[in-house]
Amino acid sequence: MKHFILILACSFSFIVGCKEENDKDIVNKACEIENPTENIEWLKELVAKSATDTTGNYKGTIYLEKFNGEDVIFVDMAMGSGGLYGYWYNCDGTPLSIGDTTLIPKRELIIYKNIEL
């Protein structure tokens, strides 16, 4: 019985470790670009602005999400809007127009954060 529990614990650790590694690999290649916070210019600028923000407008988290099978970026920051949080962008930085579709972020794959959740 002890061996069974030990094997089960090791298997669980392996599975969790693989999932975390896979998520990290996915985020490190968002929008088919390695290191998106360094190599996607608009995202790099947003991260730089949020890193030095003293107003609180750029405090939050940036996530990689999927919409219609494509990578999109969900920015969970007010960004000077007067309190509205949650902005969707295509990989090229244009705001995502979702029309009548209600899109709810999963908030699973974090690209960047400057606050603790």
- Fraction in beta strands: 15-25%
Low-confidence stretches: 1-21
**Amino-to-carboxy terminus distance:** 39 Å
Which secondary-structure class do the elements indicate? alpha+beta
**Strand order across the biggest sheet?**
3-2-1-4
The biggest sheet amounts to: 4 strands, antiparallel
- Gyration radius, rounded: 17 Å
Mean pLDDT across all amino acids: 78
Helix percent band? 25-40%
Overall geometry: globular
**Number of structurally distinct domains:** 1
Helix-strand string: HHHEEEE
Helical element count? Answer: 3
Topology, number of strands: 4
SSE order and pairing:
Blueprint lengths: L1 H26 L8 H4 L1 H11 L9 E7 L2 E7 L10 E3 L19 E5 L4
Antiparallel strand pairs: 1-2, 1-4, 2-3
Account of the protein in words:
By secondary structure, the protein is α+β, with helices and mostly antiparallel strands. It has one domain. Helices cover 35% and strands 19% of the residues. It has helices spanning 2-27, 36-39, 41-51, and strands at 61-67, 70-76, 87-89, 109-113. Strands 3-2-1-4 form a four-stranded antiparallel sheet, with helices on one face. The longest helix is centred in the N-terminal third of the chain and has 26 residues, at 2-27. The radius of gyration is 17 Å and the shape is globular. The relative contact order is 0.17. Residues 1-21 have low confidence and may be disordered.
Compose a concise summary of this entry.
By secondary structure, this protein is of the alpha+beta class. The protein has helices at residues 2-27, 36-39, 41-51, and strands at residues 61-67, 70-76, 87-89, 109-113.
